[in-house]
Amino acid sequence: MTETTGAKTRTRRGGKGLKIERIFTTPGVHPYDQVTWEKRDIVQTNWKTGETIFEQRGVEFPDFWSANASTIVTTKYFRGAVGTPERETGLKQLVDRVVLTYVKAGKDNGYFASEEDAEIFEHELTYALVHQIFSFNSPVWFNVGTKSPQQVSACFILSVDDSMDSILNWYREEGKIFQGGSGAGLNLSRIRSSKELLSSGGTASGPVSFMRGADASAGTIKSGGATRRAAKMVVLDVDHPDIEEFIETKAREEDKIRALRDAGFDMDLGGKDIVSVQYQNANNSVRVSDEFMRAVEEGTEFGLTSRLDGSVIDTVDARELFEKMAKAAWECADPGIQYDGTINDWHTNPETGRITASNPCSEYMSLDNSSCNLASINLLKFLREDDTFDVETFEKVTELIFTAMDISICFADFPTEAIGQTTRDYRQLGIGYANLGALLMATGHGYDSEGGRAVAAAITSLMTGAAYKRSAELAEVVGPYNGYARNADAHKRVMRKHQAANDELRTLGSMDRQIHKAATKAWDDVIKLGEKNGFRNAQASLLAPTGTIGFMMDCDTTGIEPDFSLVKFKKLVGGGSMHIVNQTIPRALKRMGYTEETIEAIVEYIAENGHVIDAPGLKTEHYEVFDTAMGARAISPMGHVRMMAAVQPFLSGAISKTVNLPESATVEEIEEVYLQGWKMGLKALAVYRDNCKVGQPLSDGKAAKDDKKAENEAEPKVEKVIEYRPVRKRLPKRRTSQTTSFAVGGAEGYLTAGTYDSGELGEIFLKFGKQGSTLAGVMDAFSIAVSIGLQYGVPLETFVEKFTNLRFEPAGLTDDPDVRMAQSIMDYVFRRLALDYLDFESRSFMGIHSAEERARQLETGSYAPVTSDSGDEDYEDELETLSQSAAVKPEPKAKKAEKVEDNSGAGAADARAVSGEIHSSAELMEQFAGKVNDAPICMTCGTKMRPAGSCYVCEGCGSTSGCS
Predict the structure, then answer these.
(1) Which of 155, 291, 761, 875 has the most crowded Cβ, counting Cβ within 10 A?
(2) Start and end of every TSCPD domain (predicted)?
(3) Closest CA to 396 of 527, 509, 518
């Protein structure tokens, strides 16, 4: 980050608008002129199928942007049809499209004191975006400055009343939001229960039955081609009479998935049979009251109340109901929990209405029929070379971004008039940050440590204080939000609560002490300016998952999350990929006083092992600095809860974060997490136990051929013929054979192939299962049938064509670098046979290539073998060695190695070539940890996704499971 320029005062309030002063830019120099630009070819393929899914050549990006960031921005955010003049061709066009729209709206609505201030605002915003200092949420990049509706919000909250008209309107409004690729949440507690009567005398259906229709609608729109899966949140109050049915809904459906999958149905995400299972498109959360949580502690009964008159119509044992919540979450990760008392105690607009629901990821909590515009700051950009945090610049940037976010509401479009009206009246914003985990590691703070939590809390307090300070300044210039007068006392009360929490914050080091000092000054200004001017915005801050935009900013970590792992999978400019050790690690080691020789040894150890346990020269008391979300030293569940509790008092909204538990976790442990979340003052919490979702998709869900039909097609037909009868060519008594061990989806087997003296394949034997088992018998029979077919002259190509792409369980990742993913045992076996016994042209026609050939295609653009000189032969030998091992090997010769960039923490301290079967950080962690990371395969590019907040994000193309 460059040194700041300009006066100490960030912004002086002018007579008619803000007086903007410079942070990064220089008068007379456009930010684009301070950057070295280069053109890149963006080609994206599905590594499972080899299909090219996107191609745009000659796109322009700064030279310090990573290949992954430029790929994701090009594929996700550039507008216009590829190959047409309307298509955006570089980052400049994208940034200009957005920034100039903001500047125009700011001028039109009186935000700036002069034209010069508007120009400075334009330059500072442009600089910050180009240099990856922050990013707006995805809808801004999708829509702003285009002919589409100018939707800028990613988070929506709807409402539904106890009437059929309202319920049907809920379906319609939710569908419109899903159509645009955003998500919505709502509370169904107003709908009367199935234990209550209708006015006609009949029994009501209850909210769970209406969830079924909404779920089907979301699934239909999802499959209709939205940019990402429909994301939705459904909330039910704990005192609703149907609460037990709601709690157990998804757990029962998970049992169905297990039964259907075991019966051979296609239950993968996008599979043809998954649609028969209900309630899979929503996150479910129970809204618990303080009264209920006290009843849980005391072990007393709790009343379930009528939706019509509030009378108690049933009572339950609070502790038993709480246990059912935890048990359902243990089984399928739903429902999550939302703490109603805490949420509404920090509500700035109680006179308008209660907060009853959240967006799908639980970070935005506000009034019904409202929306929130988000933006996130890259914290690592404020860490100076001397490892001090640039407090002043962070505060200035926060105010700049917040100003832009408020301007967006002036020109934004909304899916419904009710949402538009509420958003314009209350102007809810959600500024947040990413790269906290990387910042803590780089500065030598353990994520689950008092020092780490103190730094995180101080940064969050300063960010929200600076945002509300700017909100009060904006209120003087363009007026407070329309609902402020009605809620003024409540809003100022919440500001004092934030200030009191800041006063109680105890610092432990010079870094957090400096930040806390600035935060204290900011909150003093908030109280004074708010008393005088009021506030422009009802809400200011939250912590979102920052999935796609985190990759856009080349962040190591997303949102509030710790580092996913100490090693990462990194794409390179021009193609190829590397296994890298995070640059934050040597930086942290240097800060802690280790010598260069020791740092090199530790980094080398991490590159080989993926963790720091027993690393040479590393003190055991420093292990905690390198604890990660996964791996040998994974952060404990309560470590995640404690971090959330540290920053929650300094956020207007909540935190998108899932607390991950090991597969061995008990129901009681989940109960404890939920209970402690309430006691520590969280607003919401979700848990995920490893491998709890037995139907978790691990393949791309493409339609497969019917197994039985495929077998019938492949079975040799025996006809009664007199002439031209095929003659069986038997193998010699002694013949050459080779045995290959393999694993498909974790299930192990052996393939033995015997050949004629000419080397032609003549028989196969498959062992898969215990001798005498039904599976072993079926495999023996199948092997004999294929062997006889081969000996009667059926070409191997015919078997390969018939049995590859055949889909049934077990399926998934294999231990064979040449066949990285198999859709079934048959798919693997015949791909392996094709590679071993078919010529290049035959199998190339069927799209079957070895790891060596795929590596060659990345370098030369062709799979075909080439004649090499002696130097290239050495390099080919290295590639061959790489293709024959799943282990990480040294980087190829410098003359062939791709460029590896250093991107402010995203670069490589120790870079190595990776085997062809590794495609993401999730898979790299699987290699080191020795266990499967329970995450879905990306439906766009086939890459294994990784957790980000409450959802999953793809490192290959930036797709998310519902969050921006």
Answers:
(1) 155
(2) 731-836
(3) 518
From the list 706, 663, 707, 656, the residue with the least C-alpha distance to 682 is: 656
Q: Does the structure show a pLDDT above 70 at 75?
A: yes
Block residue for tokens 């929306």: 371
Prediction pTM value: 0.77
Task: Name the more confident of 754 and 934.
Answer: 754
Contact (Cβ atoms closer than 8 angstroms) between residue 404 and residue 125: yes
Closest listed residue to residue 370, CA positions, set 564, 177, 238: 177
Indicate which residue of 46, 359, 582, 903 is catalytic.
Answer: 359
Residue ranges of alpha helices (H) inside 571-686 are 584-591, 596-609, 637-647, 667-679
- In this structure, are residues 750 and 839 in contact, taking their beta carbons and an 8 Å threshold? no
- Is 720 a residue whose pLDDT tops 50? no
pLDDT tens digits for range 274-329? 777 777 778 899 999 999 999 999 999 999 999 999 999 999 999 999 999 999 99
Pairwise CA distance, residues 37 & 34, whole Å: 10
Beta bridge partners of 738: 753
- Count CB-CB contacts under 10 A for residue 317: 15
CATH label of the domain that carries residue 217: 3.20.70.20
Band (2; pLDDT cuts 50, 70, 90): very low
What are the strands of the beta sheet with 812-816, ordered from one edge? Answer: 761-767, 747-755, 736-744, 812-816, 819-822
Whether the link from the prior residue into 890 is cis, omega within 30° of 0, is no
* More confident position, 151 or 216: 151
The answer to whether 665 and 472 are in contact (CB under 8 A) is no
* Most distant CA pair in the chain, distance: 105
* 911 confidence band (pLDDT: 50, 70, 90): low
Which residues in 722-855 belong to E strands, given as ranges? 736-744, 747-755, 761-767, 812-816, 819-822
Are 776 and 770 in contact by the 8 Å Cβ rule? The answer is yes
Mean pLDDT across 158-178 = 91
Question: Angle at CA 563, nearest 5°, toward 361 and 398?
Answer: 65
Please determine, for residue 352, whether its predicted confidence score (pLDDT) is greater than 90. Answer: yes
Boundary-marking domain end, from 314, 345, 376: 345
Report the SS3 class of residue 748: strand
In this structure, is residue 18 part of a structural domain? no
* 938 in catalytic set: no
How far from chain centre, in Å, is Cα 274?
22
68 is catalytic: no
- 113-118 mean pLDDT: 96
Annotated active-site residue in 124, 363, 671, 955: 363
Q: How many domains does the chain fold into?
A: 2
**Catalytic status, residue 691:** no
Contact 921, 533 (CB under 8 A): no
Please tell me whether the peptide bond between 810 and the residue prior to it is cis, using omega within 30 degrees of 0: yes
Helices (H), 83-163: 91-108, 115-130, 138-143
Residue 302 lies in a domain: yes
Return all residues near 245 (Cβ < 8 A) that are at least 6 apart. 194, 206, 208
Q: Which position among 46, 174, 248, 361 bears the catalytic label?
A: 361
In tens, the pLDDT along 806-860 reads 888 888 888 888 888 888 888 899 999 999 998 887 887 778 888 888 888 777 7
Predicted confidence (pLDDT) at residue 148 exceeds the cutoff of 60: yes
Between 180-184, 737-741, 876-880, the lowest mean confidence (pLDDT) is in 876-880
| Contact (Cβ atoms closer than 8 angstroms) between residue 380 and residue 438 | yes
2 found inside a domain: no
pLDDT at residue 870, as a whole number: 42
Q: What single-letter amino acid sits at 544?
A: A
| pLDDT recorded at residue 962 | 62
Q: Which residue has the tokens 């609703």?
A: 240
Question: 181 in a domain, yes or no?
Answer: yes
Q: Are 824 and 808 in contact (CB under 8 A)?
A: yes
Is the distance from CB of 238 to CB of 289 less than 8 angstroms?
Answer: yes
Residue finishing a domain among 345, 363, 396: 345
* Residue 711: per-residue pLDDT: 40
